[in-house]
Amino acid sequence: MSSQNNTGVSDLAFTGVGKLIKLLPTGTFFLFQFLNPLVTDNGNCTALNKTLEALLLAFCGIACCFASFTDSYTGSDGKTHYGIVTATGIWPSPNSDNIDLSKYKLWSGDFVHALFSVIVFANLALLDSNTVRCFYPKFESAQKILLQALPPILGLVSVSVFLIFPNNRHGIGYPASNDTSATSQPTASAQA
Predict the structure, then answer these.
(1) Interatomic CA distance for residues 119 and 88, integer angstroms
(2) What is the pLDDT of residues 23-52, one digit of tens each?
């Protein structure tokens, strides 16, 4: 009985971590980490490097925000389809003859998730050593403790907000759930 209980707890923990990974901008941050050293010349920025870095930051920030407004569903053809969440449902909605797309409506929690995804990305990207050396080099030596403490504090706040506003969206890059109990509708406690 004890091993069965441990399995339930570990399944719950892995499910929670999986949902958290969907909410955090991991793919976007990976792209940023890959391009950042090239764009900033490893922190030795010229005016052109600063402009390119600002464009990269803006593009990645918009991508984090946009991902919060996407979802997927299994269409009448049995394939996974992706779309943008709107006030009336998901768009575009091909092959959705027998699917109730109204359950994919936009809700206030989507805006909260978008905001905190951008905050998490900005926290990690703006405190990256190459970005710091490029945009505000004196800050790195003067505020080293802040650079070390801010990411975990903002991470804890963001995780708390993600727990208060749970999200079951399956955005671009994440397949639709086959579990009929998992919908994109917010829970009753999150709507209150």
Answers:
(1) 27
(2) 667 888 889 999 999 999 998 999 999 999
Beta bridge partners of 83: 71
How many CA atoms within 13 Å lie on the side-chain side of 82?
11
> What's the token pair of residue 134?
């490029």
Find the radius of gyration of the CA atoms of the chain: 20
User: What residue type is assigned to position 20 of the chain?
Assistant: L
The residue length of the chain stands at: 192
Using alpha carbons only, give the angle 143, 145, 148 rounded to the nearest 5 degrees: 115
* pLDDT reported for residue 134: 92
- The DSSP code for 46 is -
**Closest by CA position to 90, among listed 181, 169, 175, 182:** 169
Query: For 129-143, what is the mean pLDDT?
Result: 83
The pTM of this model reads 0.76
Helical H segments across the chain, by residue range:
2-23, 26-40, 47-67, 108-126, 129-135, 137-142, 144-164, 188-191
Conformation bin of residue 42: beta by default, left when phi > 0, alpha when psi is -120 to 50? left
**Token couple for 21:** 């990974």
DSSP conformation letters of 144-180: HHHHHHHHHHHHHHHHHHHHHS------TTSPPP--T
Dihedrals phi, psi of 121, to nearest 5 degrees = -60, -45
Q: E strands within the chain?
A: 70-74, 80-85, 90-91
